[in-house]
Amino acid sequence: MLASPSDLFAQLSELGLNVHGVLPLADWPDFSTDEDHAATHGLADSVLWVIGHQGPRLWQHLSAWWGEDWPSRRLDAHPIDAWSRETIERALQARGIAHRCLFPLREQQALLPLQQWGRVLGWHQHSPFQVGIDAEWGSWFAYRAVFVVRQPWPITPQRVGPHPCETCTERACLSACPANALRPQWDLQRCLRHRLAPASSCANTCLARCACPVGQQHAYDESQMAYHYGQSLAFMRRWATSGGES
To answer: Where are the alpha helices (DSSP H) in 41-97?
Structure first.
């Protein structure tokens, strides 16, 4: 009997991995392998499964699981990645579903077209502050994992809806950016200079993102914002120190 994805999606959603999309692997042949072909007798029996989180539920679950101080402890170089992958793999293994993880991997890997897959699914629209935005949950979501699953699951229909930025009259994000990095178009260097400045007001947040009115009911709390932006700031500092080569 073929495994239905509905109970699997429901189990993961309870843990905060609550955004799911299934794409036909045949449309993305670069991500199939000889092993996939041999195991499934053709790409028609395999799909790409894209998993994300939306809103604060994932963070709430992690905080309860590891304790409130877990972001300050070095549990893993990328603890959310490690937890997401292991949680999803355990759920697949418990159901006997053959699979291969594309993201996140334990070693370095080439960049995957996550935003492109998100656009195909209708999750990802461009925003002035360079974070994907959705008309329902705003910018408060992230891509957490991608798997090749050897099951002919139903393909997810594309979410259809208006682009929230096209109907926004306030443009609060533009005026909220202290670096004036969003107009007339996004200026990466202005953004970097401000974030890397001593005592930057955007060290552990993005004031432009926080000013966006879309999906505010799903916004991350201060600790979640500080964790994610602290990770990106550390990367920026390493990148700047290396002369922009890493």
So the answer is: 57-66, 79-94
pLDDT in tens, the chain (246 residues): 456 799 999 999 999 999 999 999 988 888 876 655 544 445 557 899 999 999 999 998 888 777 766 666 655 567 888 889 999 999 999 999 999 999 998 666 667 899 999 999 999 999 999 999 999 999 999 999 999 998 889 999 999 888 999 999 989 999 999 999 999 899 999 999 999 999 999 999 999 999 999 999 999 988 888 888 988 888 888 888 877 654
Distances in whole angstroms, Cα of residue 212 to Cα of each of 116, 130, 134, 179: 23, 12, 12, 16
In DSSP terms, which residues pair with 147 in a beta bridge? 49, 101
Specify which residues 100 forms β-bridges with.
148
How many CA atoms within 13 Å lie on the side-chain side of 9? 16
| Residue tagged 């992230």 (tokens) | 142
pTM of the model: 0.87
Q: Is residue 134 within 8 Å of residue 27, measured between CB atoms?
A: no
Q: Which two tokens stand for residue 92?
A: 């697949």
Contact 118, 19 (CB under 8 A): no
Q: How far is CA 4 from CA 146, 149, 181, in A?
A: 18, 12, 46
Q: Determine the angle formed by the axes of helices 57-66 and 222-241, rounding to 10 degrees.
A: 90
* DSSP symbols for 189-238: HHHHHHHHSTT-TTSSS-HHHHH--TTGGG---HHHHHHHHHHHHHHHHH
Task: Give the distance, in angstroms, between the CA of residue 211 and the centroid of all CA atoms in the same chain.
Answer: 20
CA distance 212 to 73: 31
